[in-house]
């Protein structure tokens, strides 16, 4: 720390100003105290922790990848979308920061309350529209006089993108996003009170040779019910559970596909070699299985069930009567 040393001439000037009344010593002390007080703007209250902001950033990084794939397929051109920043600011500040005329998509996100706003730079929106109409993707800003057909085509493009929003949010909450409104003037749009804290996710967007920003505005009231799910602990726990569930399903599927041998011996008996040599057509061999006792169904040569023989659709069959472990204590 560098200390500022006053010269004798400066000291004399200060003493002279205090003596003459031009400067008050008490005011100097008061200014020194006031400098130690940190200014806090209650209009810009920080309602999300850094941990929660990071979780939202991860969600929208996934959303950016999904949007890149979706728009690449729809527009058949090079598309690159990535998260530039995730900030929390008052809603009024967000509205002031976007152009006077722009492309605004408003989504409901049932079962969560409130709505989400997606602001698309006119540069990007018209580049997309030009590609949809068969052009090279050049941008022409004419947002103030959109035709009905252009409005419908743009709405359809962003309406289908709601599927990607649902998938990206699935790790945090199951939502059903629906495009409810399409606007071009932010001044006519009042989703929440001006001082309401909102999360603004800014996405760097490149479509062909055109680049711009897509801003997603999420009010605090939308996120409030799921704020506990935005912690790193919950995120990691959910990811681990999901991974275990997938492993369990895969293991269950593989086991269910395994082939096993099922057979029902009708009975057995013992004869000597002389009896075997004297067997003729029509001879009967008595088995040691009484006709009033059930048979065994063997799985891979292990008796598992009591069954009775019969026919089903003109084929020999057995009907399961009971589990061997329950029906026979000695089994």
Summarize the structure.
The protein is an alpha+beta fold and 331 residues long. The chain has helices at residues 8-20, 25-35, 50-75, 91-97, 122-132, 148-160, 162-169, 220-223, 232-256, 273-277, 324-327, and strands at 79-90, 103-110, 115-120, 176-183, 197-207, 210-219, 262-263, 295-299, 302-312, 315-323.
Explain what the structure shows.
- With 331 residues, the chain is of the alpha+beta class.
- The chain has 2 domains: 44-232, Chemotaxis protein chec, CATH 3.40.1550; 262-327, Surface presentation of antigens (SPOA).
- The chain has 11 helices and 10 strands.
- It has helices at 8-20, 25-35, 50-75, 91-97, 122-132, 148-160, 162-169, 220-223, 232-256, 273-277, 324-327; strands spanning 79-90, 103-110, 115-120, 176-183, 197-207, 210-219, 262-263, 295-299, 302-312, 315-323.
- The strands form 2 sheets. Strands 1-5-6-3-2-4 form a 6-stranded antiparallel β-sheet. Strands 7-8-9-10 form a 4-stranded antiparallel β-sheet.
- A hairpin with a 2-residue loop joins strand 5 (197-207) and strand 6 (210-219).
- Helix 3 runs antiparallel to helix 7 (162-169).
- The longest helix is centred in the first third of the chain and has 26 residues, at 50-75.
- The mean pLDDT is 81.
- It holds the Pfam family FliMN_C.
What brief labels describe this structure?
11 helices, alpha+beta, chemotaxis, elongated, cilium, Surface presentation of antigens (SPOA), about 325 residues, Chemotaxis protein chec, membrane
């Amino acid at each position: 720390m560098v200390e500022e040393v006053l010269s004798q001439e400066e000291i004399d000037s200060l003493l002279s100003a205090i003596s003459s009344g031009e400067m008050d010593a008490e005011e100097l002390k008061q200014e020194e105290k006031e400098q130690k007080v940190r200014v806090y703007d209650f209009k810009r209250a920080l309602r999300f922790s850094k941990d929660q902001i990071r979780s939202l950033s991860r969600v929208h990084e996934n959303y950016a990848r999904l949007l890149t794939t979706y728009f690449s397929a729809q527009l058949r051109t090079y598309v690159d979308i990535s998260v530039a920043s995730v900030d929390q600011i008052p809603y009024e500040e967000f509205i002031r920061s976007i152009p006077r005329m722009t492309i605004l998509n408003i989504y409901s996100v049932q079962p969560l309350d409130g709505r989400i706003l997606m602001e698309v730079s006119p540069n990007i929106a018209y580049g997309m529209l030009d590609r949809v109409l068969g052009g090279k993707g050049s941008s022409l800003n004419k947002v103030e006089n959109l035709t009905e057909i252009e409005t419908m085509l743009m709405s359809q493009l962003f309406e289908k993108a709601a599927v990607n929003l649902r998938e990206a949010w699935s790790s945090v909450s199951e939502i059903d996003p629906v495009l409810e409104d399409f606007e071009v003037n932010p001044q006519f749009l009042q989703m929440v009170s001006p001082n309401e804290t909102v999360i603004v996710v800014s996405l760097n967007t490149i479509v062909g040779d055109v680049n711009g920003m897509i801003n997603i505005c999420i009010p605090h009231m939308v996120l409030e019910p799921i704020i506990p799910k935005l912690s790193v602990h919950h995120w990691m726990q959910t990811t681990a559970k999901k991974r275990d569930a997938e492993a369990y399903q895969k293991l269950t599927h593989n086991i269910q596909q395994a082939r096993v041998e099922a057979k029902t011996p009708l009975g057995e008996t013992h004869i000597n070699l002389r009896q075997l040599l004297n067997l003729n057509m029509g001879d009967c061999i008595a088995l040691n299985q009484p006709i009033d006792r059930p048979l065994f169904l063997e799985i891979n040569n292990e008796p598992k069930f009591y069954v009775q023989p019969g026919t089903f659709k003109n084929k020999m069959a057995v009907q399961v009567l009971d589990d061997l472990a329950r029906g026979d204590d000695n089994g």
